[in-house]
């Protein structure tokens, strides 16, 4: 399973990259705004900086919602760096644009996916990645992880090559469950990634090893 960090923060991307386990980055307009990156020029320049930091795929999201606009914006984003993946919303014009991009060698991440039916459409259109939003499904008291399991089952039966990128992943348990349920990629905040490290028995065990060493060696 691949690990992507879900942030536009250069500091967090660098910290995640330096762990040696990072496979890519996802961003969205909310995450860019959160970092204070505003204005088209600044946003494009920020994507270039992120692409220089990591070797893996970097999802850059379009703002347009009409077909021509998505295609124009996506083609521009794709030219910024070879590791850009154009992130396109799950709307009718988005599916049409993903199909266009797929025929023209531009890789895509279909975002804002909340149902298995949407996942089938995106795969048929040739999306490289599919982003089901687990946390937001949980927020409305539906089982978000079941969505990952359903899509994984359908993609396996049908032989779809689109990679399932579990998104809106908010904690370490989400990561473990996404792995169990067949996600190809998990994108999450750095805090969730670091949450995987934590276990009280590790802390207790390490303290004992160090204390025993000190007792024996002075
Ligand atoms: O990857 C999508 C993600 O950024 C959305 O997460 O926590 O806002 O639902 P969240």
Q: N-to-C SSE series?
A: EHEHHEHEHEHEHHEHEHH
Name every ligand kind in the structure. SN-glycerol-3-phosphate
Strand content: 15-25%
Question: At the third CATH level, what is the topology name?
Answer: TIM Barrel
Mean pLDDT: 98
Count of beta strands: 8
Question: Order of strands across the widest beta sheet?
Answer: 1-2-3-4-5-6-7-8
Gap between N and C termini = 44 Å
Q: Spans with pLDDT under 50 lasting ≥5 residues? A: none
CATH class: Alpha Beta
CATH-assigned homologous superfamily:
Aldolase class I
Overall shape: it is: globular
Secondary structure elements and their pairing?
Elements: E1 2-6, H1 10-18, E2 24-26, H2 29-34, H3 40-53, E3 57-61, H4 67-78, E4 84-89, H5 92-103, E5 108-113, H6 116-125, E6 129-132, H7 134-139, H8 144-158, E7 163-166, H9 172-180, E8 185-188, H10 190-195, H11 200-217
Helix pairs in contact: 4-5, 5-6, 6-8
Bound molecules: SN-glycerol-3-phosphate (G3P).
